[in-house]
Amino acid sequence: MPTSPTLAADQPPAAAPAAGRGRRADLSVVLAAVVLAVWVTSGLWRDPSSRAITVNSSDQALFEWLLAFGGHALTHGENPFFTQLVNVPDGVNLAVNTSITVYAAVFAPLTYLIGPPATFLVILTLNLVATALAWYWLLSRHLVRSRLAAGVGALFIAYSPGMVAHANAHLNWTAGWLVPLLTWGVFALRRPGRWLRGGIVLGVLVAVAFSIAAEGLFFTALALAVFLAVWALHPARRAEARAALPTFLRGLGVTALVAGALLAYPLWLHFAGPQRFHGTGFDAVIHSEDIAAFGAYPQRSLAGAAGLGTNLAPNPTEENSFFGLPLLLLAVACFVALWRRADPGRRATLAALGVTAGLFSVLSWGSLAKWDGRRTDQLLPFGLLDGLPVVNAALPSRLALVVAPVIGLLLAYTVDQLRADPPRRRRVATAWAAGFAVALVPLLPTPLATSARPPVPEFITAGTWRQHISPGGVLTPLPLTLDVTPDGQRWQAYALAHRQGAFRIPAGFFLGPGGPDGRGRIGPPPRTFDTLMDQAGRTGLVPIITEGSIQLCLADLRYWGVEAVVLPDEVHGAKYDLDEDALRRTATALLGPPRRVDDVWLWEVPAARRDEAHPR
């Protein structure tokens, strides 16, 4: 069987290490991966239910809700890809959102046992560990001979700046373990006689990846396509690629059939179902990588803790490059050293890696170049692609995440080559070790910043809410649930996971239609009631209330079918503090005096009053 064209060593492997030494190396990598994952997430382990990731508690609340809803949908026979529980009366198309359906189903028993916040933390931690181990498996079993080299490459990729940044609550992007499995699956298609089984396996992997991280799947497919094209066109590999092409295409066809069958319904919902949209609710201009960010240090690193971090990302969750200048120089040195000693076949692999990293770096800069926070008028290649379907739903800065695995592979290949050198050449390894230390030690991750968040009110945990709304009725917290005020979905997640039944809420944190030019937006378009409550919470001042605004707010409550309006003593603002007293006084001016029930203020909205503005 011919050598795989993967990012491989492209030379016959040396004899396997002694079984005992290999097992010790494997165990050491597992231990390192677990320790680093627990270290990064340690702030949440203190008390998952009352702690939140400081810079992204809104996404944390969303993923907790998705876990609770997915388990509820599975156990109650409901549609896991569309829900009427939020954004009443229109509902939300979860197929076009990041619904993590596979995670929700697999971890449903754990969600019911320990609750959504703790399950969220378990998955986040396991994601980091699994990413390191999956890359270690691919490297040590298929690409390099040295277990040390595989460990260095795998641990760097799993805890690279971009992965640690996305550990700020992104269960989709931290599922980096999918990438080495997809990569292995693609290259396994070329094995003679294995294309059918390989195609089936890869089709299932694609379906799983789409469920967990569709954007990541898209980027992985693009990166593999670029790599394969450059590798196959290289003179040293052209004949081998031509010979393998028929088998590869047959396997790819099976993959498309299997993945298409598994994803037929969610893909229909994604592109043609209700509440669909095109583009995204995020600004691609803002979410493009600053060129200077590649040489900068991330905030959650030793260098960042020492004051060397920067604010070149749109937010701390999107530090997608931030490799630091020493690592960039080390990567170039690794590439040059490997190239100088490579045979033509290995140079094909290195050329493909270099083109892939370079292309995705440039694309991550977006449509217009930006340097150190200052945007220029220089048009970049991404501007030619931004209007294409699917591409217009991706954030360009995240394309930089492709670069980290390339750097990790270069590090692994270099260590592997140094380990294979004869003893007389190993003096050079001392200089290389110093270079690795200077480049990698400043990037060692520090724990995610966490802070306390209000507990779910007793009004919800005790099930008192069921006494104040009809079965399946609509309840809304104040202010309404949005990305910046995620309490409503946290409360709903608690009720679903504790089998209390389901109440519905207006608005919510999701991507849906209603943005400019038919594009998506975060949450629904605002109405009078939620606009007034948002103004009160932000400013601490009661807005001017007129009879007209009261009637408009009553009309909004009727549109949503709200039966109860609830204000806890402490409202969680994901981005800023909110004034609970101003919220209470504003709601009182609109709806009359509230009642104190358990630990919340409650305004009941009788059906007659909800219909007052628009009688039937």
Strand content: 5-15%
Query: What is the spatial order of strands in the main beta sheet?
Result: 7-10-12-11
Number of strands: 12
Unreliable residue stretches: 1-17, 612-616
If you average the pLDDT, what whole number results? 92
Distance between the termini: 75 Å
Number of helices: 23
Share of residues in helices? 40-55%
Oligomeric state of this protein: single chain
How many distinct domains? 2
**CA-based shape:** elongated
Structural class: alpha+beta
Radius of gyration: 26 Å
Q: Give the biggest sheet.
A: 4 strands, mixed
Polypeptide structure, described:
The protein has 616 residues and is α+β, with helices and mostly antiparallel strands. It folds into two domains: 41-114 and 457-607, no CATH class; 115-443, no CATH class. It contains 23 helices and twelve strands. The strands form five sheets. The protein has a four-stranded mixed beta sheet with strand order 7-10-12-11. A hairpin with an 8-residue loop joins strand 2 and strand 3 (92-93). The chain starts with 18 loop residues before the first helix and ends in a 6-residue tail after the last helix. Mean pLDDT is 92; it is low at 1-17 and 612-616.
Descriptive key words:
616 residues, alpha+beta, 2 domains, 12 strands, 53% helix
Give the SSE layout.
Elements: H1 19-40, H2 42-45, E1 51-53, H3 57-76, E2 82-83, E3 92-93, H4 101-106, H5 108-114, H6 116-143, H7 147-158, H8 161-166, H9 178-188, H10 195-233, H11 238-272, H12 302-308, H13 325-340, H14 344-364, E4 368-371, E5 374-379, H15 382-385, H16 403-420, H17 427-440, E6 450-452, H18 458-461, E7 474-477, H19 487-497, E8 511-512, E9 521-522, H20 528-539, H21 547-560, E10 562-568, H22 580-591, E11 595-597, E12 600-604, H23 607-610
Parallel strand pairs: 7-10
Antiparallel strand pairs: 1-6, 2-3, 4-5, 8-9, 10-12, 11-12
Helix pairs in contact: 1-6, 1-7, 3-5, 3-6, 3-19, 5-6, 6-7, 6-9, 7-16, 9-10, 10-11, 10-14, 13-16, 13-17, 20-22
